[in-house]
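Per reviewer request, we include the raw input and output of the structure prediction for the construct analysed in the revised manuscript.
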Amino acid sequence: MATAGEEPLTGEQTEVTVGPLYQSRFRAALPILPRGLAMVCLLLNLIPSGWGTLAAALFACCFPPSAEMSKGRAVCLNLCVFSLQLLTTPLLLMGYVWSLMWGCALLALSATRNDDDGDGDV
């Protein structure tokens, strides 16, 4: 087998592993919600900034986070995101845009949940 910096010998196969896209701790704490609840969170993020994120933090008690972590840690991280969204909303509406992106991320995660279930329920 070739070592670092050497070309592999002909006929020798190299293994390339491709991992998931980079995921921040905050993003990994998002709960995988059913599509209906994810839509509610997105709608709650539309008018008052971040309130859908607060709802997602509460739902994290009942639904698993998208990465392996405890539910308590997922709730705490989502509450941190909620408070940061509220604090950064007056700053050029950055928190508002962030909360909308967060709602879209919740909706995208719900699509993976529905794909995994295979039962087609919405």
